[in-house]
Amino acid sequence: MTTKHLQDKDGLVSVTRRDLLKGTSALIIGVAVPPLATISSATAEASVVTRTLNPAQLDTWLAIAADGRVTGYWGKMDMGQGVDTAIAQIIAEELDIDVDIVDIIAGDSALCADQGGASGSTGVNLSGAAFRAAAAEARLVLLEKGSVELGVPLEQLTVSDGVVHRIGDRTQAISYAELVADRMFNEPISWNGRYGNSLALEGRAKPKDPQDYRVVGTSVRRKDIAGKILATTEFLHDVRVPGMLHGRMVRPDVAGARVVSVDEASVEHIPDVQVVVENDFVGVVAPSEWDAIRASKQLKVEWDDGDSGFPTTSDELFDWIRAAEPGESVVEENIGNVDAAFDGAARTIVAEFEWPFQSHARMAGAASVADVRDDAIVVWTDSQKPYDTGKGAKVLLETPINGRRKNAPDYSVRSIWKPGPGSYGRSDAGDGAMDAVLLSEAVGAPVRVQWMRNEGHAWDPKGPASVVTCRAAIDGSGNVAGYHFHIKGFSRADQNSRENAPSEVLAGHLIGHSNTPEWRMQTPAESYGFPNKRYSWDALAPLRQQASPLRTAHFRDPYGPEVHFASESFIDEMAFATETDPLEFRLGLVTDPRDAAVLEAAADLAGWEPHASARRRRDANGNYVGHGIAYATRNGSVNALVAEVEVDPNTGRLWVRRMFVGADHGLIINPFTLDRVIEGNLIQATSRTLFEEVKFNRKMVEISDWVSYPILEAADAPLEIKIRKINRPELDPRGAGEPTTRVVPAAIANAFFDATGVRVRRAPFTRERVKAALQSA
Amino acid sequence: MNKTFTITVDGVEHTLSADPTMPLLYALRNDLGKKGPKFGCGLAQCGACTVIHEGTAVRSCVFPVAAVTGNVRTLDGLGTADNPHPVQQAFIEEEAGQCEYCIGGWIMTATALLEKDPDRSDSEIREALAGLKCRCGTHMAILRAIKRAAGQMRS
């Protein structure tokens, strides 16, 4: 691999691996440490460094500095849920060192092997397992080196606080730092040959038995938190590269509108503005950020009416979905004979549930800094998939289109992840990065792009809309003989979850690349032992193919809340139809003891009182009060939630007053942080359930800010969330970043039914809908 | 047309040249290198940019640089690692926030509220926080942190 030197007019600054390791005198590593490149005031990582990243080498994963500090090179990143701290705990555990001396470098394609980025709540369970193996192996290697140095047989040695010594005798001792100082491990470790989430390592060493854990399972505080609260941490948004210009995009008011003409003279009065136009991609670049903003607002662009947006509107959407021709139909699960159960039913119950498009609506729209010069790309991003951001940038710039890029260089590429506003899936992050890449390519200077608020709402990828139909066959004895769940909606992957190709990003569409949507849907995840059960789906093609503000992509717990809103609401409907308490009904059906345990935990916390019909209780203020339960599994995590709601019939306000959670995420790495991750899931999902809907007309989405797309605020936060965590040391840690999202909508809907006797089957449960539902009841 | 402004931020005077209509946020971030106030919406709808101007929490994303008349306090200047502001200390202890992009808005709003009077009820606190957004949904920890800070500041 050759090294690219991105020299800029401010000259080269020499930064070495040593500097990158935070000033510690790092030892490591037989890797080239070239002089560098562009460097921002506070961004040592900006240097272009090559480091041979070979997953089969221990040095790829861990380094020990002369001062004893240990660095883990992690090919994922933390999106604010303390996963980097959990990885540090795992490393500290296996190496027998203090967690405070472990540093994690994350998501830099030149420094860390690709472990898939932040993806599918796999940070702790999959990448944690890799680091467990690597750290255990490192400990063994260090013991072996210590054995040689001390002249003591390996089996007579142990480690305390990073010091190898004779068991029960510290007079013969040597520290990790002394053992490796100025040398690298130079030791192989087996890997499974697969980059990404599933990258797995296996060494000779056997990791610790969980019963010996002393760091894992304790509430180590998040390593990142103080720097962010004291405003000393550099976010993506603080990256400043010498010679950097500010970019802003210019978007049409109509989806699919195409550029007719651009009047560059309209911004001539703004100093040093450059206008970048390629096909329908329009941006402005200026040395001053405020000037870039002004230019983006003042640039006169004539757009045509395009093919005018969408074939339906948000008001008509669900009927449109019902009538639409599916692009793909799949029966996911078919147990017993569902049709026979319905044929023999004494009665059937049927219900439909509707979920709208939703916006990631991050705290800030996409941002990125890209530096495309000569034959090198450096991109700073807060994308969850920074490895794919880099790959995607390279493909974007090397694919001929519009008569351009025919002789594109074979770009070297480096992507550097930096923290940004919380991202929960394939948000707009990857789109913003590609905007920066194209602008930088065009102007030949580093460009920082920041999407404005309207872009973050209107132009980010969306969570898909759907209609679910549930049917139950009830036999003559009052039992559910057959159950059919069918979801029809938009595929959750018009854009894939990683911006690795021009087809997968907005900028790619705008310069003329075609969309390549995939068919991906979801059905319920639970262990209900219905004798006859069918789970099926119909996936619909995007409402518009190209550059759509309604293009779908993964949004936290993809299709989890949509699917389980319906399925867990309908479980309650089946329970009441058979005159059974909803908790008892579930406990009678679940076949996995872990599932029963979380249901019982949540019910116990809530003081669940059995009831076989809506209770319609009112408090002293005349508000309805009710409780509802829901449960679901997700990739080995199991959660149950009891929601307590208060409904004001006059205002229509539905307040989720208390939430009680039974949570089983396998082995718990960090209880304190896990509680907060669960709280975040619950509140964000409550917001989606009560407030969030992307309205759109035939021309365009109608959301552009927090007024047109409100989310939950402090006034609507619950009084209390109680969580009972069930630790399962016999299991691997399971993901926690998403699984408690999916239980929220139905728990609230079920509580609303208990409170009012009215079933809400369309999300979000806004004040207007609540009032309308109560009035029509 | 740019004009020259002298503004006091975190107790330090700065002179800068800017379009008078430019919001203070861009001066803080680009001219002064502050990291605490963040761009979230540019519309005073989310609070990520909140600073304290003359004792009042204001949204620097819509506050023209020309309107600055007194000291501007930012998250950057609120406290240090050795001597954090009680509100910062409480947020650290509660691990309030996840991505922390919005956190400055909550901290600065709570600081302005509690410095006036730390004896605040739950509903007063929630009311004062109206308009602030947290997409990660960490409101429970934020509320705990503010109540913890209020207790500290009362004693």
Please characterize this protein's 3D structure.
The complex is a heterodimer of chains A (777) and B (155). Chain A contains 18 helices and 29 strands. In chain A, the strands form eight sheets. In chain A, strands 11-12-9-20-17-18-19 form a seven-stranded mixed β-sheet, sandwiched between helices. In chain A, strand 26 and strand 27 form a beta hairpin. In chain A, helix 2 packs parallel to helix 3 (123-150) and helix 13 (560-577) packs parallel to helix 17. The radius of gyration of chain A is 28 Å and the shape is globular. Residues 1-48 of chain A have low confidence and may be disordered. Chain B folds into two domains: 3-77, Roll (Ubiquitin-like (UB roll)), CATH 3.10.20; 79-154, DNA polymerase, domain 1. Chain B has six helices and five strands, in the order ββαβββααααα. Chain B has a three-stranded antiparallel β-sheet with strand order 4-3-5. In chain B, helix 4 runs parallel beside helix 6 (139-154). The longest helix of chain B has 16 residues, at 139-154. The termini of chain B are far apart. The interface between A and B is large, with 61 and 60 residues.
Features:
heterodimer, A: alpha+beta, Aldehyde Oxidoreductase, domain 4, 4 domains, seven-stranded mixed beta sheet, 29 strands, disordered N terminus, B: 155 residues, Ubiquitin-like (UB roll), DNA polymerase, domain 1, 15% strand, globular
CATH superfamily caption of the largest domain in chain B: [2Fe-2S]-binding domain
Helical fraction of chain A equals: 25-40%
Structural class of chain B: alpha+beta
What low-confidence regions of chain A span 5 or more consecutive residues with pLDDT below 50? 1-48
What do we call the CATH topology of the largest domain in chain A? Aldehyde Oxidoreductase, domain 4
What integer value in Å does the Rg of chain A equal?
Answer: 28 Å
Percent helix of chain B: 25-40%
Outline of chain B: globular
Quickly count the helices of chain A: 18
Mean pLDDT of chain B: 97
Q: Give the total of domains of chain A.
A: 4
Number of domains of chain B: 2
- Spatial strand sequence of the major β-sheet of chain A: 11-12-9-20-17-18-19
